[in-house]
Amino acid sequence: MMNNTTPLAVWSYLVVATLFEWALAKNFLSLTTIYTNIVIAALAASQILAVAMVFLRLKYEPRGIVGLATVSVFFAVLAVVLALGSIGH
Amino acid sequence: MLRAVWGWARFHDSKARGHLGDYNVNTAWLKRWLFTTNHKEVGILYLVTSFYFAFLAGILAFLMRTQLAFPSETFLQPPQYNEAVTMHGLIMVLWFLSPLGIAFANYFVPLQIGAADVAFARLNATSYWMYVFSGITAFASFFVPGGSPASGWTNYSPLTSLQFSPGSGETLGAAALIVLAASNTVGTVNILVTILWHRARGVSFVKLPMFTMFTFWTMLQFLWAFPSLIAGLIMLEADRLLGTSFFTSTAGGSILWDHVWWFFGHPEVYIVLLPAFGIVAGIIATFSGRPVYARKPLFAAVGIVVLLSYMVYGHHMFLTGISLTEREVFTINTEMISIPFGVLMLSFIGTMYKGAVKLTTPMLFALGSVVIFVIGGLSGVFNSSLALDIALRGTYFVVAHFHYVMVGASEFGLFAGIYYWLPKMTGRMYNETLGKTHFILSFVGFNLIFFPMFFLENMPRRIVTYAASTGWGPANFIATVGAFIFIPSQLLLVYNMGRTLRGPPAPANPWNSTDREWASGTSMPHSVGGPGHGLGNGLGNGVSHSGSESAHEASPLSTRPIILCLGFAVSMAGLAFGLPVIVIGLVILAGGVLGWAWDDYRGRFRLPEEEEGERWPFSKVPKDKLAMWTFLGSEAVLFGVLLGSYAFIRVNFPYWPAPGSLHDINVGTVDTIIVITSSLTAYLGLQSIKAGNKRGLIGWLGVTLLLGIVSLAIKGSEWYGLVQGLAPGAQIGLPLSSYFVTTGIHGAHVLAGMFLIIYLVKRAATGGFSAERYGTVENFNLYWSFVNCVWLVVFPLFYLL
Amino acid sequence: MRSGRSVPPKLKSRPEGTKALLRRGLLAISAPTADTWQSLYNLYWVLAVAAGTITIGALVFFVTKYRARPSSGPAQQDEDGKVPIRTVLVIIIIMASVLAGAGYASFHAIGVYNNPPNGWNDPNALHVNVTGQRFSWSFNCTSGCGVPAVLTVPHNKIVIMNITSIDVFHSFGIPDLRVKADAIPGKYNLIWFQVSTAGTYRILCYELCGAGHAFMIAKLVVT
Lengths: 89, 801, 223
Description:
heterotrimer; A: about 90 residues; mainly alpha; 2 domains; 3 helices; C: alpha+beta; Helix Hairpins; Immunoglobulin-like; five-stranded mixed sheet; four-stranded mixed sheet; 4 helices
């Protein structure tokens, strides 16, 4: 039924991405800070997506579950956005 | 009142003997009520208990109004007054109004959708006992040195910090709130899954009866609002007990608390309102003899209210100095939320068009609720204006507004429900004259209390007294007169409820409603006089039931919920009373959890399978998985708020340590790889059992457990190093505060997961899982990988960025 | 509307009584913030009373007109019927328009609050640092503006206040002038006002701050 390569492939990607993040943070690639941070954030987001799709099996779940998960994440992000948005005049 | 209520509960049971089917026919009354998992009985427990709390909070209100009747009164001292105003608010909102709605949800949602019981019967009892014990804990705070919380129900920082609220009262109060939040989270998952998964054939979403429909939306609000409260309380308790500085610093402080509290607080007030409106909608339809007007727009409108309710909370923060753009956004959003409520009013009032309106007591309360809501809602529009709020903020205008919507609209709606459903719950009819008298006195009394307050827009809230020269005396006096009418008149309700137990038998469907909860009873053959089956066993009217309702009586008893909840509440109370109490609580908690697991392991506590009805959009999803996903939805918001708080603090704090200086990046990376691998191994375990490979499952689970231990050990060593560097007794700075709390909560989740693994291994070893039966393993996987996802956010935020 | 009216000398120094409160709308405490606020408030009252009358009126009308007669009507039918989309849309549009108007008026009003006549750095204004603490207000300005708990300012002078707290969350409000801002530790919130009428005005705390919350009273004396 289930193919072993997909989880292993995902795992490999996750590890590589983590090492890449590590390298960026250690400044081995000598990017300016803002770019470093953006790339790290993007990598982390991709990792979460990968875990959600495969290990949480969202790829195979019906729309109801995907909807529930998406809306929950929406509210989590909303809380952060509204809090950060209040800073400043 | 005590006796009447006690008597009611007893009366239920005395009729119950001989009616519990296969189970112990002579179950003693106490055992029955302590260990029940039946949704109707849990509903009754919630109802009766909520009245106790209303009584408590009502007395506090009585004291406050007495104090404020005249200028410069000294009936209450300032600290006492502050305790009263705080606990009145907390108890009324969280331990009375909301639970009363939940009581009805428990009793009637399954009946309305044609389900045998709620989705998870023991979880239902669990949510109830957590509620009770949390309430007792909150009440106990009156008696600890320093007294109860006294910073307002909103618990603003830094007044709630240890420095300004010394003593254990606030700690205990916050602990009680955490237990209550847990109760609500558990209850939410339960009722949501019930509505999503247990609808009978033909009960599509659009055809949901009003009360269930409104409850459905309310549960969604519960789901994403309470985690914010939990996060805030965790940070508050960490500040008070561990010396962190979330709310005592200026980078976090008052504004951070405002965000976290009100992201919960605003949805909370709609949580209090919507179930009552569900009742009102159903009642207006029933007593007009007409279907609900504009049902589909109504459904959509409530959904929009839920969505918007998370985006309006900044109107509580208009004067804090947040950015102008956000203030404008919050003004617009808050005004916008009036529009769906307008659709609600259209529906409620439109339902009566060309109807045959009968002004029974439930209908009076329902209509009263609508009238009062209109006034209350309109006054809310005043407060939505970022300009008007400048003068209205913190004044009695606001007090008037929210009492109009919470007492008037919500409480009256819930009272309508009590009268409406009393015949169903007891099989007997209440006294109509008493009911109408109760309504008139309540309506008049209520308006006398709160309408004058709209004209006290200069008077600050929560002041213990005021000078005569302010001119606030007359309005306050009128308000107190109103209180002296309103509060005692509630005794009429309680008396009526008690009296109903010996009242005339009621027909099975006294109101000629077409809602499903009435359809399942038959007439009352044995209830005339004598010990018949007038009350059944609290499980509805009459003896013979249609198939679905008779199944209600079959829920077995379980001792695990009450023990588990006792342990949890005691361990939380131990935050205020010391480590020994925490330990005792944890031991009891462990006992409850182990007992529960044991019951599952042995396959005890099986409820009959139900036939599949309407399950869209979750038709192919097993019930347990749906529950796990729902739970994870709330967890997402919990971590979102924790991490959002971190982000907020970090942006505001100019001296954040550069990456690598506080936390070792290499160590973090290694830890992350271990975490990632544990997700893989858990998944491979799931794959094994899906292929029927029991030993593969155990093996992979074992590896996962090992990886979990290593990961926690690494975390532990990092913690150890950081704690060593702390000066004893000093406050913990912001970077470490957020690190400890975030990784601590994450680590607690990992630990819980590890206990789950042990249970899974044991169960797998004895053949508990197979290629066809692996649901629990799948759910564990969901939980475990979710927790690992959280780490994938924590790692970059704390170590790399 | 109100700004040009003169005040009988008696009223100026009399502390506010109920009568004065009821006559609030006519009382000539002239301050741009108060005037702006009062107009906005009156507008909202008119809209609210209209909306409330219509809605509650409809409810009462329906209850009376469709009251059950002894020959009572049929039991509740469960027909879903057509969705009354037109009616719903009409309600939505009416509400949205009214709210948009109210919102616009609010944004206009906040413009007054956010923009002192000569800006926040006005050299001719009286700049006052206000500090809230448990349980008093203290005022600090370069030109010396009074003793603790009493702030004295000349009439017609633009006063700009920088408000903070040194302990807990307070809220600084001068109700008669319709100005208020939260006093939060670590935050500095600015407000401005300008009063053309001499008199004494109350300053109160509007956020629960402890046992002395009700007694955190100060005086604004406008000379």
